[in-house]
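3.2 Worked example (two chains)
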Amino acid sequence: MAKDRKFLSALCTICQDVVSQVAYDQVLSSLVKNAATCLNAKASSVRLLDKSGETLQIAASYGLSKSYLKKGPIEVAKSLIDKQALQGKIVQIKDVGKDKRFQYPRQAKKEGIKSVICLALKCKERLLGVLRIYTDKERVFDDEEITFIRTLALQGAAAIRHAQRYQRLKDLNSIGKTIASQLKTKTVPYTICQSAAEDMFAKGASIMLIARQTEQLEVVATYGLSEDFIRKGPLAADKSIGDCLKGQDIVIEDAAKDKRVQYPKAVKEEGIRSIICIPLKLRDKVIGALRVYTGYRYKKNTEDLEFLTTLADFGVAAIENARLYEHARRGYEDLTRDVWKWYDWGEHPPHE
């Protein structure tokens, strides 16, 4: 009964933090502290997947030394405990010094770590990272404790999602203000690519427009992509994820093997796993696309697509504003030149 009350109190504290805090780093700090103290464990940590989806980076920890945290990269392919956890298993290792699934047994021994339990942090269909709890004595967690740990992981994922939604609102508000306050908004497409990539924790993003003379896609802005990938070759509007240019949101989960991708080899070399393609629409006419390239396998999520669609709409507004401004500027210059010629004031008006 005392254990139940302790677990319930910890969960209430974490739930309150999730609701009241915007920055998820504060929530995760509370999460790892409660995970360790409530379970009478030595330490706890949260690691999140990087943009490649191949390495886990520390996001929060409790009870671990700085030297242990800096022991080296946690690569999913080499750390079987994390690989299994990311596949949906709750992984317990009774003795990290004897179990080959643990990547750094020597450093763990020096840190005084004996047992560990690990499970995934998952927000809807997206894998975010892992929660680990460490003990200094051999231990196997019972069913009641595992239920508590599973709930902690759900709360951790909720904290990240909460912060993500807040950041999305901030990004949209900032881009909207920029478009509203400037006539020449050439920097906005880059900002949109940056926001799309960082929000989706992707490798990069691009905005492309259809060149009506050639029916090819011209890159307007990119973020996070290598020069080799950007210059891989011409993109045909009908061959490069053509359904998107018919007005459909397209999610390609395995880009290197999908026939809709025009340059699968270049995609693989860039480390791209999935591609999200959102059409850019101007008065119901598709003029291009916003693409997001992820290093992890992405599964379609309505909330994500709605956010990216709003970014795409902002991109169209920025491009149209820049076009109208340039058209008005040229019209004014032509009119001024004609007036000077009409009154025989010279061939060209003076420069301001």
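3.2.1 Second chain
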Amino acid sequence: MTGTQKTIDIIGIQMDFGSSKRGVSMGPLAIRYADLSGKLSRMGLSWCDKGDIIPVSGGISKQQLKNIEQIVEANGRLYSQVEESLKNGAFPIVLGGDHSVAAGSIPAVANYYGETGLIWIDAHGDFNDDKSTESGDMHGMPFSAVCGCGPDEMIPYARHFINPKHAVQVGARDIDTMESLRLKEAGVTVFTIHDIDRMGMPEVINNAIEIAGRDTKGIHVSFDMDAVTPEAAPGVGTPVHSGLTVREAFLAMEIFYQCGKVVAADMTEVNPILDERNKTGILACELILSLLGKSVY
């Protein structure tokens, strides 16, 4: 997104059914509390806060697909809101909630644009299905689902999938054995934290943009705050040591803005209950601003 006057649609979803830890449903509130709307206004951007989607409290749950009914129902509403936002010419920013919300936002973007690239920034693979999952927690499945690799039950409303050859993961450092095999078999490009150490963040992100942007009509960026090292982002449910530095995270967002190909984004997994004085919520807010063009000078 660059050189555009699109309205920013802020769409929250208070989802914590995909995770085994409660509290991440308050993530949208924490990001807003960091003065997201005020900072957007001071950047001269037009914005519209669409409020929050609140999942129903009960529904069918399965051992390998926990809370599936609540997740599918709420994500179906998110799908409709993101699709409406795109039809109105806006740029949707989805505030999660756990990362299962990406199974609502990404299919809507893919349906609107057709061939769409995806850059998934996350410490975890999130590429399990109901057969490979070790926990049954559905925030570990959305990347697989939106790439058409299952579980199909997670996205019954989807009409278009992300082609795995246009899907890139950045910052991986905790991937299950079966998940790793599934990513390789699908043909997803994975840049681990080792690749970032070896190549540097600019080269990794530019390569990711090239892969996700080649022969596509836009790129969706889906950011999980546990990609950032826990010292800088303590308020997440599944922290993993030695993650992205704050500057690496900001640099990624700055390059995304400069490339002009990003059409929608998710910011997920901020858990205020586990945070320190909203440190993670504030960082998530600032990363969104960088994606939208905020610069130091």
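3.3 Remarks
The domain at 8-291 is CATH 3.40.800.10 (Arginase; Chain A).
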